[in-house]
Amino acid sequence: MSSFLVTDIGCLVTNDPVFDGTSLGIISDAALAVSDGKISWIGSASEVKTSDYQNVVSAKGKAIIPGFVDIHCHGGAGFYFSDLSPENVAAARNVHLKHGTTTHIASLVTEPVGVLEEQILRLVPMVNAGVFEGIHLEGPYLSHARCGAHEPSLLRSPKIDELSALLDAGQGSISMVTLAPELDGGIEAIEYLTSRGVTVALGHSQADAATTKAAFAAGAKLITHFSNGMPKPSAGASTIAEASLAEKRIPLEMILDGIHVSEEILKEVLASGDRRTILITDSMSAAGGADGSYSIGSLEVVVVDGVARLTSNHSLAGSTLTMDRAFTNLLAANNSIADCVFAASTLPAKTLGLHAVGEIAVGKKAHILEYKNSEISMVAS
Predict the structure, then answer these.
(1) What are the distances in angstroms from CA 161 to CA 164, 166, 188, 193?
(2) What's the CA gap between 342 and 139, in Å, rounded?
(3) Which CA distances in Å does 101 have to 7, 92, 335, 348, 364?
(4) CA-CA distance, 145 to 137, in Å (whole number)?
(5) What's the whole-model pTM score?
(6) What are the counts of helices (DSSP H) followed by strands (DSSP E) for the chain?
(7) What is the pLDDT of residue 21?
(8) Is CATH 2.30.40.10 what the domain over 3-66+360-380 is classified as, yes or no?
(9) Residue intervals in the chain for CATH 2.30.40.10
């Protein structure tokens, strides 16, 4: 259907204050029209004549929300986005699409710089084709002390010539780089990446508060999986965690799988600033698959009861999370569907400058999900 009407919407979450005078932008008993893959009209169901449309879809009283935007995900279905086979990459992507992620950034883990260049070059055509909205480099510029599931021997301090080569390989497709600002050349790297239009996230870091603040001043815009790959928040401590909590304008990625983030830390984050949580999966290849043996780069991983850990030291090794579970987990803690939509769709899109997605608004891509009683299904993508 190139054009259709969705009606009988119990609750339409737009995050546009024009509809209800608040930041939530909620319309009850709503309808919306889609034409050529974009939203062409939004309003009350009482304002529209269904007879004007050849194709009409009933939401049957369900809430309609924008498709999820996952800016930190490595793979699924047994494969990584770095896989040599486009078919395997598509299989990994489709696992998450089935769970509501309509916009993806392809995250890559630490590898030798030459290998990363090859992986980037394979992904560029997929970005150009719209399979992914960009590429995220998580490594190799990370702290040895907070390496997590990254090969320690490959970690290094950033050098401008290396960064330039990686960005050139990306041909404008690299959207985000995660780095540890305390490394030699870390602040200079942030300034350089920012000057090239790349969003810098701080993560896998042992930085103190002063260095973290300097990184924000240099252009860093968000925190990679807050409370993981860094010291846990501790009141009065001079750490990246406490400095990030105090800087209320900085969004914080969160892996809400019930394992990575405690209830206490989630409550602290929700209380620290207005709508600053970005939901991510940080999923490794086991997402959508069975328990068993996997790998991340050269590191062996075992998944038991859906929890991925390195076999060498039992450190968490990404997750098997999907965005629908992250959304419902946050909703259980927050109880505001509009805030959860903001965390799963709107804020990640805004943070990376993805202007065509993340909201239900006229002119945006028609990435539309139905939601009711923790069940999420696709209307259009």
Answers:
(1) 5, 9, 12, 12
(2) 27
(3) 23, 12, 21, 12, 16
(4) 19
(5) 0.96
(6) 10, 20
(7) 56
(8) yes
(9) 3-66+360-380
Provide the mean pLDDT of the chain.
Answer: 94
Give residue-wise pLDDT tens across range 22-74.
566 788 889 999 999 999 999 888 888 888 888 999 999 999 999 999 999 99
Tokens, residue 335: 């109880």
Q: What is the mean pLDDT of residues 210-231?
A: 98
C-alpha dihedral sign at 37, 43, 46, 47: negative
CA distances from 337 to 26, 64, 227, 332, 349 (A): 10, 10, 24, 10, 17
* Contact assessment for residue 288 and residue 319, using Cβ atoms and an 8 Å cutoff: no
Q: For 307-361, how does the pLDDT look when each residue is reduced to its tens digit (9 = 90+)?
A: 999 999 999 999 999 999 999 999 999 778 999 999 999 999 999 999 999 999 9
What is the spatial distance between Cα 304 and Cα 316, in angstroms, rounded to a whole number?
Answer: 11
Whether the Cβ atoms of residue 47 and residue 54 lie closer than 8 Å to each other: no
pLDDT average, residue stretch 268-280: 92
Give the Cβ contact number of residue 146 at 10 Å.
19
Name the residue with tokens 């009683």. 373
Instruction: Give the CATH architecture of domain 68-351.
Output: Alpha-Beta Barrel (3.20)
Tokens representing 353 are 């400058």
> How many Å apart are CA 264 and CA 349, to the nearest integer?
27
Residues constituting the chain = 381
Among 50-59, 150-159, 243-252, 354-363, where is mean pLDDT lowest? 50-59
**CATH 3.20.20.140 occupies which residues in the chain?**
68-351
In the numeric block, which tokens belong to residue 229? 């790959």
Can you tell me the distance from the alpha carbon of 106 to that of 36, in angstroms, rounded to the nearest whole number? Answer: 26
Q: Return the residue matching tokens 């392809």.
A: 106
Query: Under DSSP, is residue 274 helix (H, G, I), strand (E, B) or coil?
Result: coil
